[in-house]
Amino acid sequence: MVDASDAAFIALTVVSLGGAIMALEAKEIIYGAVGLAGSFFGVASLFFLLDSPFVAVFQITVYVGAVAVLVLFTVMLVREGRWFRDSMGPAARMAAVVTVAALVVSLVSSFIAAGLSTTGEQATAPNFVDIGQLLTGQYAPVLEILALVLAASVLGALTLAKVDPTGEGAAGPKTQATDGGERS
């Protein structure tokens, strides 16, 4: 018989995988970003189910709140038509399949080499104070680098979203030359 926690796990797994499939198979990138956010939210819900609220809130804050929203805003601000249609040819699809296969092989070999099956249960669960001390102590440089990466992606999004309404570049307006070429 399936109890409530098993049913919740199955439902959240379906939400996570459904969002991931939607992110991969969406014809428009906007719907793909929404599917990605749904998948991230499903993973965060799985962390809640596993009694890990700190990781769950971190997942929602960073991935759903920052990455997915950043992708959505970048796409909505840039509005380039080539991003809104499916342009993968057979060679790109084959490269994607090979890349995914290599990723799966590397992840499986990493899990096998890590010896996760021999680890025991933790005596006590860490609390928020312990996690906060770890994040501001030993792992502080990693968090600083992540903050810089997120700041760089926001700057990149703003750079991509910058629109020149007059059509003039940095060199001024372009005029047609008599031989058919452009000159500034």
Within the largest sheet, what's the order of strands? 1-2
Rg calculated over all Cα atoms: 23 Å
Main beta sheet strand tally, sense and closure:
2 strands, antiparallel
Low-pLDDT parts are 169-175
Features:
3 domains; Four Helix Bundle (Hemerythrin (Met), subunit A)
In short:
By secondary structure, the protein is mainly alpha-helical. The chain has 6 helices and 2 strands; from the N terminus they run H-H-H-H-H-H-E-E. It is globular and about 65 Å long.
Describe the structure in your own words.
There is one protein chain. By secondary structure, the protein is an all-alpha fold. It has 3 domains: 1-84, Four Helix Bundle (Hemerythrin (Met), subunit A) (Up-down Bundle), CATH 1.20.120; 87-115; 129-162. The protein contains 6 helices and 2 strands. Strand 1 and strand 2 form a beta hairpin. Helix 1 packs antiparallel against helix 2 (29-49). The protein is globular.
Helices and strands, with pairings:
Layout: H1 4-25, H2 29-49, H3 53-78, H4 90-114, H5 128-136, H6 140-161, E1 175-176, E2 182-183
Antiparallel strand pairs: 1-2
Helix pairs in contact: 1-2, 2-3, 3-6
